[in-house]
Amino acid sequence: MVDTHCHLDAGRFDADRDEVLARAFNAGVTGLVIPGVSPDTWEPLLRWPARDVRVQVALGIHPQALPELPPEGDAGHLQQLETLLSAGIACAVGECGLDGPSVERGASLARQVEVLERQLALAVRHDLPVLLHCYKAHDVMLPLLQRLPLPRRGVVLHSYSGGSGLVSAYAQLGCWFSFAGPVTWEKARKPIDALLQVPRGRLLAETDAPDQAPVPHRGGRCEPMHLQAVLEGMARGLGLTVREVASLTGDNARAVFGDIFRVR
């Protein structure tokens, strides 16, 4: 089981981070990816894989971080990102993307697009996949991806929210579709309908911890160990066994991120 997206560096894990990680491994998680979301998180994250190869990291500028970052600093932050990616430690670029509600918080859509385009270009240059956030902005995201060069390793649509109607268009671009806790929520038909449309070879699983906890943990803090519940929800939707979905999404994760998540 590979958790392709969890924020284990979040402050909500400060009190028991080591225990959370141990619970995940004891539950059968064999690898996880922690995406950086802001420049102040990047360098601490880069020290993590040396301590435990099962924990890999990505580096990016999240659109929800932009309201707190002065626009005049964007060029410098992107240059810093380029330098850190050159170290060859990060397994992906991200979390980056577009976020509709952040426009009202002060991050214009034009600025979000510019910062995202620069990060996609870095992913192409460094031959890395991208962990992509898109919330209430698919009408802008899809045309953007259709006109830009995309990284050979692909784009991961983290906690996919685009609905079943956009799956085909994103799949034609070679995107990967990652599903989180909402596939387990009662009456949440949209993620299940989308799940059924995704080519099996493009499916991934994640927890997005500490957010989006799956049933029966909904309402509490999500942990990487809850990946099992996410896989159970995916299995119910697909009519497969949990073992089959774990194997499928694990193989797909290794296709995205390479042999860092090889079965040991």
Structure write-up:
- With 264 residues, this protein is α/β, with parallel strands linked by helices.
- It has a single domain (2-261), classed as Metal-dependent hydrolases (TIM Barrel, Alpha-Beta Barrel), CATH 3.20.20.
- It has helices at residues 17-26, 39-46, 48-51, 74-85, 101-104, 109-126, 138-147, 167-172, 189-197, 227-238, 242-257, and strands at residues 2-3, 31-35, 55-59, 92-99, 130-135, 155-157, 176-179, 203-205.
- The longest helix has 18 residues, at 109-126.
Task: Supply database-style keywords.
TIM Barrel, alpha/beta, eight-stranded parallel sheet, 41% helix, 11 helices, globular, 264 residues
In DSSP terms (H or I, runs of 4 or more residues), the helix count works out at 11
The CATH homologous superfamily is termed Metal-dependent hydrolases
Let me know the largest β-sheet. 8 strands, parallel
Largest sheet, spatial ordering of strands: 1-2-3-4-5-6-7-8
**What is the distance, rounded to the nearest whole angstrom, between the alpha carbons of the first and last residues?**
12 Å
The name of the CATH topology is TIM Barrel
Kindly provide the radius of gyration, computed on alpha-carbon positions and rounded to a whole number of angstroms.
17 Å
Mean pLDDT score: 96
Principal-axes geometry comes out as globular
Q: Supply the number of structural domains.
A: 1
List unreliable stretches of 5+ residues.
none
For this structure, what is the CATH class?
Alpha Beta
